[in-house]
Structure formats: C-alpha cells, structure tokens
Amino acid sequence: MKTSAGEDILEAACLLLEKEKSIPTVRKVAGRLSEDEDRVRKEALELEKGGFLRLEEGDIIELSEKGREAGLRTIQKHTVLERFLSEILGMERAAASEEACILEHDISDETADRLEGFIAVPRGRGRRLQRGRRRLLTLADVPEGTDLRVVTVRCRGGYERLADLGILPGETIRVVHILNHKAVVVRVKGCDVALSPEIASSILVERLQ
Amino acid sequence: MKIGLIGNPNVGKSLIFHQLTGIGVEVSNYPGTTVDLFSGTLCYRKERIDLVDLPGIYSLEGKSPEEEIVRNFITGEEVEGLVAVLDATHLERNLYLLLQVAEYKKPLVVVLNMMDEAEKRGIEIDREKLSSIIGTEVIPVTATQGKNVGEIIPAILFRSRTPDITIPYDLHIEAAIRTLVSVHGISRVVALQALQGMVDDPGIAESAGTLAREIEEVHRMSVQQIIAGNRHRCARVIAEKVIRKREEVTAGSLDTLLTSRVWGPVILCAVLAAILLSVFSIGSYLEAFLVGSFESLIVQPFLSLGLEPLPEQIGLAILLALQAGLGIAFPFIFTFYIFISILEDSGYLTRAAFLADSTMHRLGMHGQGIIPLILGFGCNVPAIMGLRLLRTRRERVIASFLVSMIPCSARTVIIAGIVAVFVGFGAALSIYVITFGLIILTGIVLSRITPGERYGMILELSPLRVPEPGNVLAKSWYRIREFLVIAMPLLVAASIVLGLLQYIGFFSLFAELVAPFSETILGLPGYAASALLFGILRKEMALETLVILSGTADLASVLTAGQIYVFAVVSVLFIPCISTMAVLARVVGARITFFVSLYTLILGVCIGALINILVV
C-alpha cells in the first residue's frame, strides 16, 4: 500500500534517476526529503513489500516499473498543482511548490489530468487568436456601409460602456456614418452608436465577406 | 411599498412614470451627486406605492454616478420590487440590462414598451416564452398611447416574482466566482462585481484582483469584456428564442439627412438659430408682460403702504428678487426648456452632439459638450447642472469656464436693451462676436493647459421620434422647478444683502471709491460701477440699476455711446451671476468656481479697458 511518505520516496527516487541521472540511495532520498534516514529505510521496506522497489546492497533503491510509474505520476501531479497554484491562482512559486507537495498525494488522477487540460487550453486559444491576425484595420479606416467583425478593443479602463453597448470582440457591427474628422456612427444590435475618432481608431476590426 | 422603474435610456421609462404618478412628483438629488431621482406616490386598492424613476443606464456595473445610484437603489433594503422597462424594438440590447437586474434577485415585472412600433416593423415577440425564460410576468405596453400601462401596478403588487434566470459565464469566470463565494462568503453578484474591481473590502478586492489578472492574461481581454460578452451572448440566445420575425433596421432618409456630412451641420446651425430667436422673441414678450404686471400689481401697492424705511427696503429687496426670478425663469428659461426637451425627446440632441464632435474637440471637449453650451444660452444655471453629462473632470472644468461665459438670456437683455437701442444693431452683434471669440480662445487655451485624462465620446443615437407634448411639458416643468429651488433662495438672500447695503449708504461710498478706477480704466462714472455690482445678483439687474442710479431711462442723455458699449461688454463678460456660482460650486467645487469668477472678472475688466482705450 502506498502512503504519502511512500509516494514522496518514489517521487524523490524518480527525480534523482530522471533529472539528475544519479543512482538513488536511501541517503540521497532522505537528503532530498529532509527526512531521517531510518524512517526512509523503514518506509522503503514497506514499498518493497508492495512491489514498488527493491532495496539493494549499500541502500541502493532500484525502482520497479510499477514504482517508476507511480513516481512519475506524482511528479506530474506536483507540477500541475504547482502551475495551477502559481499561474492561475497567483501564489508565489515557492509557496505553491510547498503546497503542491501536500496536495499531490490526495488528488485523483482524473482531477490532475483535468487541471492540466485547464491550464493548457486557454493559452492555446490565445495563441491561435494571435496567429489569425493578418492586416489590422481600425474602425476609422473603413468606408461607410461596411459590415465588420470586432477583433479587439484596444482601449482599456473607462471604456466599459463600449462592452455594455455590445462593441466586443466577435460582435458584428456596421459603419453607418463617418464624419470628416473620423468620428463614426456604428450600428450594433439595431442601435446607432456615435464614437469619437480616438475611440474608433482603437477598435480593431476585420471585414465580413 | 417602494418600487423602482429601471431601464436603458430612451425606452419610455419617464413617460410610463408620468402616466402612473400624474402630478405631484418629487425631484430629489441623490446625496452627494447631481443626478436626479424622480419619485412619486400613487395608491392602488389602499396600498401606498412610492414609485422611483431611476436614471436610464446601459449597465449596472459601471462607475458613472447614474450607474452607482441605480445599483445602490436596487441593493437597498427598502426596495420591494422593480419594474424593468424594455424597448420591444431593441429587445436584444435591452435584455442585456435585464439579465443584470435579474442577478440581484429582487421581485420583478418586465414591461415591453413600444409594442406598436415593434408591430409596425413586423417584430413579433413570444411573451409567454420570454416570461418562462426570465421567470417573471411580461407585460406588453404602448406608453405613447397609454395602452396597458394600467396593468403594471397590479402586476408588481400581486404577481411580481423573483427572476430565476442565471447567466452562464465563461468557465474561468465561473470558477473565480465559486472561489470568491466560498472563500469570502459573498453572493454571486458581489463576486462578479469584485472581479470587475468594484468592491471596497480590501481582502476580497485583493483575491478578486489576482483572479481577474490571471483570467485577463489567459483571455487577453479584460474581465469586464468577458463578462459583458457572456451576457450579450445570453441576451442573443434569448432574443433568438422569443423573436419570431426579425427585420434589419435601415436608417430612415431623415436620419441620413440629419447626420450627413454636408447638410448635417447646416441643419444644426439653423435649428439652434431658430430656437434662440424664438426663445428671445417669445421670452421678451412674456417677460415684459410678467415684470410689468408684477410691478403694477405687487411692487407699486407695496411701496404705497408707506412702511418704515428699513422694512420697506428689505421688503422691496425680496419683491425685486421674486420679480427677477419670475421675469427670467418663466419667460426665457421655461420656453428654452420646452425647445430643449423637444430636441431631446425627438432624438435630435444626440445627433447634434455627434455633428459637433470635431468642433468641440478643438475646445478640449467631446460632442456631448455642446449640450450644456446650448443650454447656456437660456440660462447658465441649468447648463452647469448639465455638465454631469460630461465624463471626465477635465471636460467639466473646461466646460464650466466656457458655459459661464455664454451670453445667457439675461445678458442678451442687456445687449438688446441698451446697446441695440442706444448704440446700434451692429454694435450689439459685435458684442456677440467678441464673446464667442473669447469663448473659443478660452477653450483652445484651456484644452492645452488643463490636466486630466481625456475620454472619447461613446453616445447612443436615440431613435428619431415625434416628441410627446405631455412629456415635454412635464420635463420642462421639473427642470424649471429645479432652477427655482436652487436659484430663488439665493436671489432673495443676495437681494436682501444688496438692499441693506444700499440702505446704509454703501453704494454711494462704493461709487466714490471706485470712481477714479472706473473713470480712468473703463471710462465709466462711479455709479455705473455700482450698477455692475448688481449684475452679480442677476445679470440684467445691472441695466435696471444703471437706469435707477443715473436717474433716467434715456441713457444716451447721460452716457456716451462708447460708455454704454463698454458697460454692456463688461457686464456681459464679468463674473457669473450668484445662482451660477452656487451650482458651479456644487458641480465642480469651490476652487474652480473661484477661478472661473476671477478669470471672468479679469477678462471683463481687461476687455472693457481695451475697448475704452482703442475705441472711445
């Protein structure tokens, strides 16, 4: 049976093998975990009974396939949790790592996988959006009567009114009027909205075919 | 029972409000702001209902004073129900606000207004479906014809329900809401507001800020935009489900003409000129009548009472103030408000703002800034109140200088009353030219030197409609009442002070003291300077005082044409009247009011001196 102390040992042994390319021993593992050597040895003997590893001459830990898998899995959980805590929740890296050390033992495989997907997907989404950008038009560059899709609204802060009126990325709008100095009237959701030039030029759009 | 009417601007909320409450409406300023809250009481089956007409808004989660007031109002304990008014012709856009209102979980009734117009455009709305989606009763109403308006009160009293619709937000937003709700024990609404940076508690603000930053990083959009996007999507889904037939709205030919590049500005100038001319012709006719009858019916009998000198002086001062208030308020300001309300209700005012945007830019403002400037021609007081239309303090400061310099109807009385009569029509026009030139110069200079952020114009062009006469009258009436409430007490108080000063002989002393100064610099006799002082009370009082102090109505016999001209220029330019100063202090603060007064004083004296040296 794996305990959290056991998982820690498997994780540490795995890390030593994979990352540092050194042969894991009870002493090295205890050093990594800042644990007492005797306690690590006692725990390792338990793991040996479970078939996760074999304790060889000179306290060398030899991981079985099952033990290697369990160790890697814990490392993955640790990384996912650490990233989630620091990147999504905004915790300090060190604190996140410490917290991940505790959480990694209780979290199910499914939760870990889902968390990993959660962290990865939106980033991909953001990149796709950037790749898709070709020539950027602003609302001030198009002639009257053009149908457009809003790509980005560059102005931030104080411009929530634009979003309230429906001028948002993804929304389709039409330019109804343009005055000489580039103030525009756009039709959005059946309503006409007048925008002054500096706002019009900060709204990036693309033509609808 | 307290009920609030809530909705977007231009959905006919006020019309419904006036139809439900009739007369007896209270206008109150929300504490600490200049936003009006109209409230009225009505009775239905012995139940007393306080109905409040909330200002029209697009969102409940913005930082504008209107939005804050509505938010505070609907989160308040004593509010027992809300009537959400929706424009049936723009259902999708209106649903956006309704969805936000629904999040507050207050008993609600939904009113679909402008059903006649929707029918005309071939829009059919499945009300039962809408009602089942939102979870409240939906009442179709045509407020312009008063159709079904009577259904609203029984519905809100007996059949209002808490809406049970929930907006599905983006999963990151939902996750952040859940985190905030569970960590801080706050409601979903508060969590949403916290994510958008609208929370006071530092602990919640900090964790919400962290979550919001992470979400923004991932989405490359502001949290506000994501949330707004989700709400708009939800609104669209509902609109697609309940609207059976949709027709693409095309701009009418009239609208195209009004906002066209060539004709738009021409029409705008023509409309403004026509309004100013008719206000002055109607106003001066009414003023002569009102002031004349006040004089013969009240002032003269009072003087013939033969009171002691001091009470007589004080009584006369009060009567003069009342006469001044009535003489200006009703003939000029009320007439002017009627025209402005027509412009506003017809939807033309927003088009005027759009057309004026480029010109107003040079003066350091945006298109909306033209509205207070136009109002200023009637009276500076309501124009200054109108400064709340402007979004940034920078624009308000610039506008407060410019509006205070706009020749209001009282100043026009001076220009028309003495310059046009004693000097000539061309001279009268030249005063306007000088004033406008100075306003433009001031605007250009101020736009360069005034600090503060700039904010662009985002303005919905309200649909063109034929204004409702009842609504126009009601609006004008409430506005004039607002003016009377602010200006009247001040007029009376200032008039008493001036009366007392006159009684103790201050003015002859003042005339003597100021005579060397006014004679050398402005070329005016000392008593004319005292007359100018009266102009602070009410601009055209300078003229009346001048007549009294010079002892003759035929000013040409005591003053030269040059002196009359200088007198008029100085009194038009220098120091806004006391009522204007009072509202200025409320809207932009005492410091700016002081600077405006100082600037106009210096400007008036300098221009007067310049004309005296150059021309006379």
Present the secondary structure layout.
The complex is a heterodimer of chains A (209) and B (616).
Chain A: H1 4-18, H2 26-33, H3 37-49, E1 53-55, E2 61-63, H4 65-88, H5 93-103, H6 109-132, E3 137-138, E4 147-153, H7 160-164, E5 172-178, E6 184-188, E7 191-195, H8 197-200, E8 203-207
Antiparallel strand pairs in A: 1-2, 3-8, 4-5, 4-8, 5-6, 6-7
Chain B: E1 2-7, H1 13-21, E2 25-29, E3 36-44, E4 47-53, H2 65-75, E5 79-87, H3 91-102, E6 108-113, H4 115-120, H5 127-134, E7 137-140, H6 152-158, H7 171-184, H8 188-195, H9 202-219, H10 223-242, H11 253-258, H12 263-303, H13 309-346, H14 348-362, H15 370-378, H16 380-385, H17 393-405, H18 409-423, H19 425-449, E8 458-461, H20 469-503, H21 506-522, H22 526-534, H23 541-550, H24 561-573, H25 578-588, H26 590-614
Task: Summarize it.
With 209 residues, chain A is of the alpha+beta class. Chain A has helices spanning 4-18, 26-33, 37-49, 65-88, 93-103, 109-132, 160-164, 197-200; strands spanning 53-55, 61-63, 137-138, 147-153, 172-178, 184-188, 191-195, 203-207.
